[in-house]
Design a protein that fits this description.
The protein is an alpha/beta fold and about 400 residues long. The chain has helices at about 15-25, 70-80, 85-90, 105-115, 140-155, 165-175, 190-200, 200-210, 230-235, 255-265, 280-285, 300-310, 320-325, 340-355, 355-370, 375-390; strands at about 1-5, 30-35, 40-45, 50, 60-65, 95-100, 120-125, 160, 180-185, 215-220, 245-250, 270-275, 290-295, 315, 335.
Amino acid sequence: MRVLLVQSHPVQYAAPLLRRYAREEGLDARVAFLSLRGAAPSVDRDFGVEVAWDVPLLDGYAWTQPPDRAGSVARRLLGSVNPGLWRIVRRGAFDVVVCYGYRAASFWIAAVAAKSAGAKLMWATDATRISPWARGPLHRWKVPVKKVALPAIFGLADAVLAPSTRTVRFLSGIGVPPSRVFIAPFVVDNEFFERGAAAADREAVRADWGVPADGLVALFAGKLAPWKRPGDLLEAAARVPEVFVVFAGDGVLREELAERARHLGLAERVRFQGFVNQSALPATYRAADVLVLPSEFEPFGLVVNEAFASGTPAIVSTACGAVDDLIREGETGFTYPPGDVAALAGHLEALARSPELRERLVRGARDQIGQWGVDQNVEAFTRAVRAVARGGRADPESAS
C-alpha cells in the first residue's frame, strides 16, 4: 500500500517515526516536504538563535522536496507553493495521501491532486481549540471564520488523523463524525531518551549547574516565549526556598526573566542554559527532579514525553493537550490552571518535602510513557491508513 505524507519541513520528533514507517511490512510510505527548513542550520524565530539539530532528520526513509515557487509576497499570503506536488501525487499511484496541515497552498495542491487521482485524502491536525492563543482585535475574526471553515475543510477528506484525546474531542465538537477520526498518538523516540538518561551522570550535570545535591530542580524546556509563561515558574519558585530553576531554551523573554529573577532575589537559584540540542536533552531531564510546562497554549507538549522517557515527572498546566493522555494526578505528575502560581508553588512544595512522592512519580511516569511510544503510533497509523484505503471507518471506542 502506497502512502504519501505531505509535511511542511523535517522535524526532529517526526524523523524516528518516518524511519519506522519505512520499515513497516506492507507499507510503502514516502514523504514530500514543502521545505527543508530544519534540516540545515537556520535561525529559529522563537528561540532567537541559529538552530542546527545534532540528530539526523532525513536518513532512513524516502523523501522528496519539490521546489517552492512562492515569492516573498505570495509566501506571506499563501505559505509554500510547491506546484511539483501535483505531478508527484498524480503519478505516484498512492492509495492514501496524508496532509499534515491545510494553511499553505501546497497542502491544497496535494489534496486536490489526491482527489483527482482517486486516492483517499486524510488531514492530520493537532488542533485542540477554535480560539487562537494570540489576543487582540486583529485575531478576533478568526473564531467565527474557523467555526464555519474548519468543519467544511475536514469534511472534504475521507478521514482525519488526530494525535491526542483532546484533538479527538475538538474534532467531535466541531461536528466531525467519530467514524472518520483516527488517533495515532503524539510520540517521541522513547528509547533515545531512555538510553541517554541511563548513560547520564546526574550528579556531574547538577554540579555543572551549581545545584546542591538536596535542591529540587524544576526544569523548563522549550522556547522562552510569552504563550509558554516561563515567568510563572519563577514566581512559584520564589515561594519555595528549596527550588532551583533551570531554563533549557532561549527566546525573546530571556532578559526579562533574568531581570525578574534578580528582582525576586532568585538569581542564585536560577540557571539559563540557552538552547539545548537533542543529544544533550536526556541528561538535562535526568538531572532535573521535575519538568514544569506552564503554557497557556500548547496543543500537546512533547517535552512531557521526553521527560517521562528520561525518568522525570511533570507539572503541567491544564491548557496543554498532554494532560489528558499522559498526566495522572499524583501518579505521573500534577496539573494546575494556567497562570495559577499559587497552585504551581503548592505542587513544587509537595515535591520538595517528600522524596517518596518524587520516587512514586518517577515510576509512574516511566510506566505511562511505556504505553505511549513509537510502537503504538506505528501500529495506529498503519491501521488507520489501511482502513481508509479500504473505505473503512474508525472504531469510535479507539478514539475516545
